Amino acid sequence: MSGLLSAEGLRVVFPGRRGAPAARAVDGVDLEIGAGEIVALVGESGCGKSTLARALLGLVRPTEGAVSFGGARLGYASRALKEYRRRVQLVLQDPSGSLNPRHTVYDAVAEGLRIHGYEGDERAAVAEALARAGLRPPERFFLRYPHELSGGQRQRVVIAGALVLGPELIVADEPVASLDASVRGEILALLLRLRDELGLSALVVTHDLGLAWNIADRVAVMYLGRIVETGSVESVLTAPKHPYTQALLSVLPESEEPPVVLSGEPPDPSRIPGGCRFHARCHVLATGRAGAVADRCRGETLPILSGAASDQAACHWASAGG
């Protein structure tokens, strides 16, 4: 697997208001996405995954660390960002919010071409992107407006708008969360087909581990600004090592394990606890199963997981063979 997009030591800190402590939304992340690979970034709301995605896209400048694409470090001058965003495209959760209701489907898809000064046949490029996104014949959709389309069709238009520039990677933030269950499978199948046909890489941001199972090659589980477990989708979702991942999986309908109800809410990112950042909610620690490593859980900070594709968990208990 050759690396395409990588983050090294990435931190994003938002200053607090009126003297409040700064919020460490992303607090040290190494991550790598290979060419032709789909990585699912999963975790609860507020864990920092959307901020991490925005930093990887160059929409948020990291406080520390670096983003690299194709082996070259991302620059933040306007010309460098414009070129980068041609190669890395964003697909948002809500297609209705992503599409201007006054623009036709043709104009919505052509917008990227116009921004980047495309000099080829615009009509042919728009038609090809719509067809690849599953809207056929594409000409039938050119003059339609978003309100005339179904939710699944609108999401396909958004995907076509991302594809029209021929990107190498897409970042999909909850790409099927607003869709009916019957349509979700179609959109996931489309993303897999695009990977197979175009060699397209993808980072899929989601809270849904079931979605990760259906689409991802590799999973990165995020909690309170850090990736706490990563590895192949099979290893992470069938034999999770981190108690947080175990808890997330236990509440899925198909789980054979008793559900683990996490106590409380994730801590405030401006007040990250010492030791393992999950220890205050950890069911292993609360039930006494952590044994001899309990003190380490409460007081010893864990290192940042590497961005490599190997199976890893940031957990004292798992490291001790728990």
Summarize the structure.
The protein has about 325 residues and is of the alpha/beta class. The protein has 13 helices and 11 strands.
What does this structure look like?
By secondary structure, this protein is of the alpha/beta class. The chain contains 13 helices and 11 strands. The strands form 2 sheets. Strands 6-7-8-3-9-10-11 form a 7-stranded mixed beta sheet, sandwiched between helices. The chain has a 4-stranded antiparallel beta sheet with strand order 2-1-4-5, with helices on one face. β1 (about 5-15) and β2 form a beta hairpin. α4 (about 105-115) runs parallel beside α6 (about 150-165), α5 packs across α6 (about 150-165) and α6 (about 150-165) runs parallel beside α7 (about 180-200). It is globular. The relative contact order is 0.15.
The coarse silhouette is globular
Number of separate strands:
11
SS strand fraction: 15-25%
What's the helix-strand series? EEEHEEHEHHHHEHEHEEHHHHEH
The helix count comes to 13
Helix content: 25-40%
Low-pLDDT parts are: none
Radius of gyration: 21 Å
Content-based structural category = alpha/beta
**How far apart are the first and last residues' alpha carbons, in Å?**
31 Å
Strands in their spatial order, largest beta sheet:
6-7-8-3-9-10-11
Largest sheet: 7 strands, mixed
Average pLDDT level: 94
